[in-house]
Amino acid sequence: MILLVSSTTGLISYGIFLYWYMHEQIEEHITVSESVAHVLSQDFARLVLLKDLDTASDMSTKLKTYADLESLALYNNDQHVLYSYTRNPQNLKIKPLDAYHHKEINHPFLDLIVEIKYQNISLGHLVMQFKLKTLQELIYQNIPILSLIAFFLFILSLVLAVIFAKKFTNPILSLVKFLEHVTRYHTYSQKITVNERNEFGTLYQEVNTMLSSIYEANASLKIAAVAFETPSGMIITDSQQNILKVNRAFTEITGYEATDVVGKTPAVLKSGRHSDDFYHQMWLSLNKYNVWNGEIWNRHKNGMVYPEHLTIQAVIDDEQKTCYYVASFLDLTTQKQTEAQVEYLKHYDTLTGLANKDYAIVSIQELLHSQKPPFFYALLCISFNNFNTLIDAYNHIIIDKLLQSISQRLVNDFPEYFLCAKIASDEFAVFIHHLPQDKTLAEEYTQRLVLLLISLLSKPFSIHNNTLYMIPSIGIALIEHHFQDVSKIFQHAQSAMHMAKDQKESRFAFYTQEAEAKAKYDLELYHELSIALEQNQFRLYYQPQYNQKHEIIGAEALIRWQHPQKGLLLPSSFIEACENNGLILSIGQWILQEACRLLLSWQQDTQTQDLVLAVNISSQQFEEHSFIDRLKALIDYYTIRPSTLKLELTENVLVKNVNNVQQKMHQIHDLGVLISLDDFGTGYSSLQYLRRLPLDQIKIDQSFVKDVLKNRQDSALIETILSIGKIYCYDVIAEGVETKEQFDFLVTLGCCQFQGYYLSRPIDELQFFSLLTTYKREAKLSQK
User: Fold this and answer.
1) Within 10 Å of residue 43's Cβ, how many Cβ atoms?
2) Mean pLDDT, to the nearest integer, of 305-324?
């Protein structure tokens, strides 16, 4: 392209030159002809003056020497031809002098008229015709010079093309190529390299500046586009509030498409819930501060009214005039629903739908303030003695369904309440008002309602093909109108509830100061027991077990509490409390762990490696879902022989959830651990049921052993138990053997294993080992 432009430029230049050169040649020819004409006019002037025209013919020879002179005519002042000459006589045409012009070119001839003068005296005119050379003749005549000039112009064109390409075309083409790349790939962040120190360098810098501005503008546009398409609905209006643009979130929130609202005002969203004054105050704030935000109710396209948080921002131009309004808003429907749900959760139990304790206190307080005295009211707090046992026996789905069934039974079948509430995991509260104004009548009326409630809650619950029986305990706080501290009333009712748990018959109790004292004592005891667990204040004592030869065959692990102030406490002073407050699980696990640790040390000594250690297992511990896993983990951790560990279970464990008990006992038996049935004969288990259980031992309760020498029924019962053991291949051990006479009599009945104060009291670990050593030594001496 550059070469073509340069060549074209060279050709045009050469043509211009050629035209100029030819023109100059012709002008030079004309000048020469004019000079010849002047010379000839002088010659002819002399001839005319001398009147020697006859000699003019001699001039013809001279005229022939002028190769370009074609013809000549001499006119006198009278315009008569005095003399004429032509190189070609055939072409001679004599015309009047008036037919000629002073100088006229009629290609290929030049006509000249020259006045003949002598001393400014006109003698006539000389008309001459010269032949001009044609363009071809001139070119042919000047071929060498023209060729040289053409070659020079060609070289000059090439040089100019290179210079032009380097200085002008290449920078321009580079810029064009760079801009095409930027345009195609939108790479506005790229920069063109500036190496030029001229106008092109300045142009490149301006282009880079322009691209930087475009890149920043695009980045701003992208940010604005992302910001515009946020989850917040957005509206852009002009200064007259006509909607110009909305985003997708606007459509999602309001239901209106952009085509529905563009050109209209945001008034299409009005819900009608706000007064004119509301909008007036909005615009006052917007005009004053150029911004407004707050909650507002708008209407969806489907007619539904919804809350939103709206922010309006005025866009101000350089003249401080509002040119646009930008509004963004968030749909608060979900937030409002969440707030309502949170408010509900603050006041109600999510599982049962009953009021929680805090809301119950507020509701009762409001009721008491609205009542006119005198009046009595009662608050009942309900708990279930066997709830923890059920938790260990069943999964959470059944337990949750049970709690829901209890709440439904309270609400649907006990109409005497003002308010029902769930105040703890297994505790419910029922508030009753409109009681008789006489205290005695109020107590009697409340007691009848409580008995009705106990009967109602004691009925079986059918949950997922399981029949569950609840054992309710109800505490009653009967309050007069002047006592309105509801939190304190709850404390009273809960204190009475704890007292009711200790009452085996009535299962309910009215609040008294004794009940409050008992509740405080239970709370303090729970605190002390928790500390005892943390500080390892519990101890295990071991009561040896013997055979009829007075040989130690094992021991029963019995817990003691080494109280820092009260000294060594027997389990009768704290075990029941542990069963009520749930600490029995942690204490039972500790006992098992200590027993396994002791068995490990026994198995490392030949004197003790075959001894069996019995551990009492509470019903709550046995019914715990993870009991088998925990037991197996302890056996594996201490690497003890399972057959040296014996678990003692009471009969009341066996009568609960028969299938679950059988399954767990078989799992224990599969581990190799022995199972003993403690206090046999005091429960209600049937022999048919016992036959299906994998028992290794039954234990005769000490209540039968105590009067075995005096009471023939006890004696007969023991004989029966021994027979059962023989029939079912159970070992039988008698506990509570306190005298030699009891021991001897039991031997005569066929009993082979014994435990009691006659043989040994419970002793600590060191004493037990010392006793065993002494026994072994005495046995060796007796053999000698």
Assistant:
1) 15
2) 88
Rounded Cα gap, residues 82 and 56, in angstroms = 10
Amino acid present at 594: E
User: Do the beta carbons of residue 677 and residue 694 sit within 8 Å?
Assistant: no
Q: Is the dihedral of CA 61, 65, 70, 73 positive or negative?
A: negative
**The three-state (H, E, C) secondary structure of 225-259, written as one string:** HHHHCCCCEEEEEECCCCEEEECHHHHHHHCCCHH
- Whether 648 and 678 have beta carbons less than 8 Å apart is answered as yes
From the CB of residue 288, how many other CB atoms can be counted at a distance below 10 Å?
9
φ/ψ (deg, to 5) at 22: -65, -40
Q: Which residues pair with 109 in a beta bridge?
A: 106, 131
Q: What residues contact residue 315 under an 8 Å CB cut-off, 6+ apart?
A: 322, 323, 324, 325, 326
Average pLDDT of span 198-211: 72
* Cβ atoms of residues 236 and 224 within 8 Å: no
**Strand pairing partners for 324?**
238, 315
Distance CA 82, CA 74 (A): 5
Which token pair is 426? 């297994």
Residue 755: pLDDT band by 50, 70, 90 thresholds? very high
Question: Under 8 Å CB-to-CB from 43, ≥6 apart: which residues?
Answer: 59, 62
Amino acid in the structure at residue 231: P
Q: Please answer whether residues 85 and 56 qualify as being in contact, where contact means their C-beta atoms are separated by less than 8 angstroms.
A: no
Pairing of strands 674-680, 645-650: parallel
Burial 341-359 (b: 16+ CB within 10 A, else e): eeeeeeebbeebebbbbeb
* % of the chain beyond a pLDDT of 70: 86
Q: What would you report as the CA-atom Rg of the chain, rounded to the nearest whole angstrom?
A: 65
Q: Report DSSP state, residue 550.
A: S
Is residue 589 within 8 Å of residue 536, measured between CB atoms? no
Cβ atoms of residues 602 and 644 within 8 Å? yes
DSSP result, 647-712: EEEEHHHHTSSHHHHHHHHHHHHHHT-EEEEEEETSS---HHHHTTS--SEEEE-HHHHHTTTT-H
Which residues have C-beta within 8 Å of that of residue 242, sequence separation ≥ 6? 263, 264, 265
Q: Is residue 339 over pLDDT 90?
A: no
457-501 pLDDT, tens digit each: 989 999 988 889 888 999 999 887 777 688 888 988 988 888 888
Three-state SS at 177: helix
Task: Supply the mean pLDDT for the chain.
Answer: 83
Inform me whether the pLDDT recorded for 9 exceeds 90.
Answer: no
The answer, yes or no, to whether the previous bond of 144 is cis (omega within 30 of 0) is no
d(CA 497, CA 495): 5
